[in-house]
Amino acid sequence: MKKIVVFSGAGMSAESGLRTFRDSDGLWEEYDIHEVATPEAWQSNPKMVLEFYNMRRRQVIEAQPNEAHVALKELESHFELHIITQNIDDLHERAGSKSVLHLHGDVRLARSSVDEALLYPVEGDLNIGNQCEMGSQLRPHVVWFGEGVPVFPDAVNIMENADIVLTIGTSLNVYPAASLVTYAPPQAEHIVVDPAEIRNPGIENLRTIQKPATEGVPLVVNELIASIKN
Ligand code: APR
Questions:
Q1: What pTM did the predictor assign?
Q2: 193 vs 51, 57, 82, 149, 210, CA distance in Å?
Q3: Has residue 137 got a pLDDT over 80?
Q4: What is the CA(215)–ligand 1 centre distance, in A?
């Protein structure tokens, strides 16, 4: 079975009603990254950070997977499929996808601020005073600017075995995530689905489908499935 690696970003969930970060109505237009998404913000104003992620979590819980999430699930019957997502929502999982790696964490989980292996599901909001079993304040299980990406080596391993890389809805602005696609073998076929013109991360064999995810992804999925039947 050919291996497809999907690399998704905020645009994947845009049509599920979750805002992207860098579009004109994106989250980083309304919020200052330094106030809500850095270790320094967590030190100086943890309440504001918790509120920001509580809002994200509530919206994720209300959102539903869209046609693009659902279409990707169909690929699993025909290909070995791995999804690497920068998204902190669980919409790929809720669409039924089996192999999903979260590069930037998962907003539905909290983690200890003294031991990053201690993770807890969050029911409702995460508040000041919510502690891990070691007595430290719980923080959102997300990767902030200035922090390492602990699962990056796992993502590289997956990418190194890709036959086809399908990049969906990411501006490829945030590193190291944006460099991930360059770890695919040189002969891998790359397809990008994004309504905007995405800057090429230095890949030759790349085709862009300039459409929103719910249009572009089902098209690509049908094409890929047809290609193995021929
Ligand atoms: N379908 C597909 N793509 C879309 C859609 C859509 N309906 N709407 C917007 N997009 C595209 C935009 O054109 C843009 O290229 O989604 C991309 C969103 O880019 P960003 O907002 O920069 O999101 P992303 O690339 O996922 O950000 C990376 O930045 O702030 C951090 O940690 C956060 O994981 C995030 C990281």
A1: 0.97
A2: 32, 26, 17, 24, 6
A3: yes
A4: 16
